[in-house]
C-alpha cells in the first residue's frame, strides 16, 4: 500500500534572508525566500526551494517593471494594476505547480526503484 506524504502548509514555512541569492551586484537589499521549517526525507528539498526563490524573484522584478510603467487614469489604473497582479500571481502559481508536479514524478520514480531493489534483495 502506498501512503501519501504529509502535506505542507503555510504554517510550516518561514521567511528567511539569504544574501547569496542576490542576482545583481547593484542590489542593496536581500531577497526574501521561503524555506521549510521541517524538511523531512521526501520533503520538497533544496532544488524546489531554489526554484521557488527564483520564481519569487522574477515576480518581484516584474512588479517593479510594471510599477514604473505609465498608468492610465483614475479607477482604470487601479483595475489595470489589479489585473496585472492577478495575472502574475496566476503565472507564478502555474510555474510552482509545474515544479511540484515534476518533483512528485521524481519522487515516484525513486520510490518505484527503491521498491524494486528491495524486492530483488528479498528474493
Automatic annotation (TrEMBL):
Domain of life: Eukaryota
Keywords: Coiled coil
Region (Disordered): 1-30
Record field: compositional bias (Polar residues): 20-30
Biased composition (Basic and acidic residues): 9-18
InterPro entries: Spindly/BICDR_Dynein_Adapter (IPR051149)
Protein name: HAP1 N-terminal domain-containing protein
Phylogenetic classification of the source organism: Eukaryota, Metazoa, Chordata, Craniata, Vertebrata
Amino acid at each position: 500500500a502506498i501512503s501519501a506524504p504529509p502535506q505542507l502548509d503555510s504554517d510550516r514555512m518561514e521567511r528567511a534572508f539569504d544574501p547569496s541569492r542576490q542576482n545583481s551586484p547593484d542590489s542593496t537589499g536581500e531577497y526574501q525566500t521561503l524555506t521549510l521549517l521541517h524538511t523531512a526525507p521526501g520533503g520538497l528539498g533544496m532544488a524546489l526551494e531554489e526554484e521557488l526563490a527564483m520564481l519569487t524573484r522574477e515576480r518581484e522584478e516584474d512588479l517593479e517593471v510594471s510599477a514604473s510603467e505609465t498608468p492610465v487614469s483614475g479607477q482604470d489604473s487601479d483595475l489595470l494594476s489589479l489585473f496585472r497582479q492577478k495575472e502574475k500571481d496566476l503565472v507564478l502559481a502555474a510555474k510552482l505547480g509545474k515544479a511540484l508536479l515534476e518533483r512528485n514524478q521524481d519522487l515516484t520514480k525513486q520510490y518505484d526503484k527503491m521498491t524494486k531493489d528491495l524486492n530483488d534483495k528479498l528474493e
